[in-house]
Amino acid sequence: MSFVRCLECPKCHSTYTAIEIHNLCQCGSPLLVRYDLERLGKEVKKEDLKGRRADLWRYWEFLPLEKEENIVSLGEGFTPIFTANNLGRELGFKHLYIKDEGLNPTGTFKARGAAVGVSRAKELGIKTIAMPTAGNAGGAWSSYGARAGMEMIIAMPVDAPELAKKECVVSGARTYLVKGLISDAGKIIAQGVKKYGWFDASTLKEPYRIEGKKTMGLEIAEQFNWELPDAVLYPTGGGVGIIGIWKALQELQAIGWIKGPLPKMISVQAEGCSPIVKAFQEGKKESEFYHGAQTIAGGIRVPKALGDFLVLEAVYESGGTAVSVSDDEILVAVKLVARTEGMFICPEGAAAVAGAQKLLASGFLKPDEKVVVLNTGSGLKYPELVELDLPVLEKEAEI
Amino acid sequence: MSFVRCLECPKCHSTYTAIEIHNLCQCGSPLLVRYDLERLGKEVKKEDLKGRRADLWRYWEFLPLEKEENIVSLGEGFTPIFTANNLGRELGFKHLYIKDEGLNPTGTFKARGAAVGVSRAKELGIKTIAMPTAGNAGGAWSSYGARAGMEMIIAMPVDAPELAKKECVVSGARTYLVKGLISDAGKIIAQGVKKYGWFDASTLKEPYRIEGKKTMGLEIAEQFNWELPDAVLYPTGGGVGIIGIWKALQELQAIGWIKGPLPKMISVQAEGCSPIVKAFQEGKKESEFYHGAQTIAGGIRVPKALGDFLVLEAVYESGGTAVSVSDDEILVAVKLVARTEGMFICPEGAAAVAGAQKLLASGFLKPDEKVVVLNTGSGLKYPELVELDLPVLEKEAEI
């Protein structure tokens, strides 16, 4: 059932066959899946989507799986996009939307990459997967790995969110904590990969995770009835989300399902870890390792992303921008969104909200533009964001 | 857009107009929404559902809202039903399914009742809603209330799950903790309702929450392509879920969308709080207040449900049964489901899994029957279920 043509290196343009297991290109770059878009465009029509399953597999022609029986699913994707009119009114936007990735299995957008990554790994006969994680990707991959009957090895910073650790443990993953950042956990995994032959599913070190994330872009297009919004704000850590959305929009443009200008892609980072913002401000094509990275939004605490050049490409090509926000602004945004829209969002999603507010103030975004903010996960995974100080009543008390 | 005929008392059969605000019947019983099913059956076809929005509002003809603009939605419902083959193999079922309500906003099935309850309250002009809760309903109603711009007053046991408390707080609800059970919280709310004129949204004290829960039954029917499974297991606290599913199936039968025998409705409770099981074993139509209620599954720690007679009616009429499981069995089931299927389920859902296992052993369920277990929420809301004892590595360590 696959329309995959090959794997291609976006840097040196080497190609590889997709029926073999690959990680990085020989030049060290991530590999991207390329499809026979001409055939896809001829054989598939937008209207075919109507009535299909309400998860990301509704876009199977844009995904790398050969056989339906290899799908490992927990109900990922096809998350709703809400009009956030109450929040928009507070911030000064007339057409503000939130896409809520918190409704994914395991509570974050990481489920998309894990679903497609694990499914394809199963199809390729892989039995053991290893990866470093800031937390949520580990929880997601452990869950899908368990459902696929695979062995999972996970390493994450010792200060990763407790709930992500518990997701790994409860689903039976071999889980290690590391006194350091995700980059340190990555080194330990890389060593194990070499020693034991595990499959390395680090961010962008395998080509299929991004295909899962790409479906966010397909969904935005379909949910806006193929008339795209003006801007998409994405909190950027490893960057696979923004790279994936951009890839999706380009594929849709290539087959003619969408026309006209694409949305401005906006990368939002935390002030305490903003390598992409720095590179963008300096007009560079790649970022530098960000020393002393620190932010409450652990998912975007990535000092140097392997796909930084792809993130920056999406930002430059789309006429977007990159902006950073403080931890205080993140906390304010979490509370503001909950009070106005009833959505308990994660700090990374709150960073994107705060970024939108900043770019409206700076004039980069206009009040009447259609602006989509990606909330990448549920606030339920970050209980430490909310303090409790509640009145305690006796049984016979009165209010 | 409404097919609502009236509100009807299932006990004394008094009827009330639905365009006014009502709580209980004058006889003290909950009220049920009745529809003009004849007209509905004529005007709506199963095929009309294809391609509709992927949430519970796809069934709007079966719901009590008059105007679409009053919908308060966060993406609730149309949750997936999975084949749980790995788990089935462990337990001895050939056709085991889990419907995962953890993918709802706020992480539990309570979002369904809150979405429909708050939407209808908004439509009726209600500004302030008060309710007691075991925790999760409070989180859900607070979230939907915030999105609707309503004032919410919530009272819950002091030992309710921390995350549910935080959901209430972050979305701006006035939240009180009570040294007692949900029934004690209920007394305090009832007093406030009398004193301040708040709208009382206690379980089954308003007629619309059940309509939201009903959509689980509509979904089971649609997702099984209108060929129903043999049994549905539901963890039972207040009982609105099982009552709602049963109501849905009867409505679908009345309009001819489903035929043949309906599934056996099975109520699962905790050994430490099993009033329905006791009543069923004694062949009674109502339950007695269960003294000393205690279980780790807080959502089913309800000593006496207002709708107990409706739960028992569903169980008796469907040829179902009621069964209780221990807290140890619940904990084992949480881990088993996570390891085999990658789903981190809540203790109430785990109780239903353990109940299925017990009824297979007793011979009530057969290995080749199609059995659906409702997982009513995400395990992410119960972090205390998983203990962490993980190896901590230095940065330069090797695995």
Automatic annotation (TrEMBL), chains A, B:
UniProt-recorded Gene Ontology molecular function terms: L-serine ammonia-lyase activity; threonine deaminase activity; threonine synthase activity
Protein's name according to its UniProt entry: Threonine synthase
Pfam family, one: PALP
Family assignment from sequence similarity: Belongs to the threonine synthase family.
Top-level taxonomy: Bacteria, Bacillati, Bacillota, Clostridia, Neomoorellales
EC number: 4.2.3.1
InterPro entries referenced in this protein's UniProt entry, alphabetically: Ser/Thr_Dehydratase, Thr_synthase-like, TrpB-like_PALP, TrpB-like_PALP_sf
GO biological process: isoleucine biosynthetic process; L-serine catabolic process; L-threonine catabolic process; threonine biosynthetic process
Highest taxon, organism lineage: Bacteria
Domain Tryptophan synthase beta chain-like PALP: 72-377
PANTHER family per record: L-THREONINE DEHYDRATASE CATABOLIC TDCB, THREONINE DEHYDRATASE, MITOCHONDRIAL-RELATED
Keyword terms, alphabetized: Lyase, Pyridoxal phosphate
Species per Swiss-Prot/TrEMBL record: Neomoorella stamsii
Residue numbers carrying N6-(pyridoxal phosphate)lysine: 110
Cofactor(s) needed for function: pyridoxal 5'-phosphate
